[in-house]
């Protein structure tokens, strides 16, 4: 039995696909939050925290961290989680740089491990690797924390005026139409 051939479509064949993906998963949810009464400052803070927590250098923790931060800081959970979800590829790319920066901050030699080597260590001896790389992870989190607060501030300062302008142009839900 012949199976129909599945054609692969290159990413650049339909440039509007990428735009519609971002529009559907980031821009539209943020615009919806503005029309539902979220303040531009709160939305900017939520996007900043979603980005920063989304690049936290420990895999598998960002959704929980965003949930805790959302409650503690009274952030917009939709914006927070949408950004967290979208920056996941960036988290993967930044794990090794955060770990190396952590070692640099503590005056230690850079570790010669790639992400695939770290994965292999954990597959071979999970608990031993956890013990050995625990200090490295803590130093990576310290490096991340030095980057985190300034990044949130930059997002807040950059996005508040943008969201303020957008909020003025969008109809508010529940507002009476003339």
Q: Which range does the strand content fall in?
A: under 5%
Largest sheet: none
Secondary-structure element order, as H and E? HHHHHHH
Question: How many distinct domains?
Answer: 1
**Count of helical regions:** 7
Give the overall pLDDT as a whole number. 85
- Radius of gyration (CA) equals 21 Å
Decide which structural class fits the backbone.
mainly alpha
- The total count of strands amounts to 0
Q: Give the end-to-end Cα distance, rounded to a whole number of Å.
A: 64 Å
Helical content (DSSP H or I, runs of 4+): over 70%
What ranges have pLDDT less than 50 throughout 5 or more consecutive residues? 1-13
Shape estimate? elongated
> Which oligomeric form is depicted?
single chain
Observed structural traits:
7 helices, elongated
Can you describe this structure?
The chain has helices spanning 15-35, 40-54, 62-72, 77-86, 88-105, 115-124, 126-169. With 178 residues, it is mostly helical. It has one domain. Helix 1 (15-35) packs antiparallel against helix 4. The longest helix has 44 residues, at 126-169. It is elongated. The termini are far apart. Mean pLDDT is 85; it is low at 1-13.
Short account of what is shown:
The chain has 178 residues and is an all-alpha fold.
């Amino acid at each position: 039995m012949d199976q129909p051939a599945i054609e692969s479509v290159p990413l650049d064949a339909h440039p509007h696909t990428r735009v519609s993906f971002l529009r559907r998963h980031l821009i539209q949810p943020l615009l919806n939050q503005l029309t539902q009464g979220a303040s531009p400052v709160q939305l900017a803070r939520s996007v900043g925290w979603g980005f920063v927590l989304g690049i936290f250098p420990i895999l598998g923790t960002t959704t929980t961290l965003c949930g805790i931060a959302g409650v503690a800081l009274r952030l917009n959970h939709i914006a927070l989680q949408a950004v967290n979800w979208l920056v996941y590829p960036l988290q993967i790319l930044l794990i090794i740089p955060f770990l190396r920066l952590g070692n640099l901050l503590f005056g230690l030699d850079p570790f010669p491990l790639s992400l695939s080597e770290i994965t292999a260590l954990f597959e071979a001896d999970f608990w031993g690797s956890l013990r050995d790389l625990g200090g490295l992870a803590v130093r990576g989190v310290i490096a991340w924390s030095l980057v985190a607060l300034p990044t949130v501030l930059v997002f807040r300062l950059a996005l508040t005026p943008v969201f303020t302008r957008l909020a003025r142009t969008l109809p508010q839900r529940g507002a009476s139409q003339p």
